[in-house]
Design goal:
Strand order of the largest sheet: 1-2
Largest sheet: 2 strands, antiparallel
Number of domains: 1
Strand content: 5-15%
Number of helices: 3
Shape: globular
Length: about 110
């Protein structure tokens, strides 16, 4: 993703999708989060990016990643078939997906 005159939004951080997910609901939550953030500009600090991502995740998935104690949550809107369909793996989001998005934002910010 080259930084040019076109406005770069938070949605740009979501491409390409990760090759590995925690549970089957994760890619659908990823796409819903991307769509939710499509009109948002990338904040100027990594902390602000993470805060925006966590707030959007809370709105899209309905839980707070920081305070939720469960390791997975089920959301019917992300159920599209398969054994773990509709389940979102919270450790994957905390430990892999959120850091990935913040890293991508930082890469764009310093470019």
């Amino acid at each position: 993703m080259a930084h040019d005159d076109a406005a770069v939004t938070m949605a740009d951080l979501f491409d390409p999708e990760p090759e590995q997910w925690g549970l089957r609901g994760d890619p659908y939550a990823w796409r819903a989060l991307r769509d939710h953030l499509s009109g948002s500009e990338i904040p100027t600090s990594a902390d602000e990016v993470l805060g925006l991502l966590r707030a959007a995740f809370s709105e899209v998935v309905g839980i707070d990643l920081v305070t939720e104690r469960e390791t997975q949550v089920y959301r019917e809107q992300y159920a599209h078939g398969g054994m773990s369909s509709g389940y979102i793996c919270l450790p994957t989001w905390r430990d892999q997906l959120m850091p990935l998005l913040v890293k991508r934002a930082w890469t764009l910010l310093v470019a």
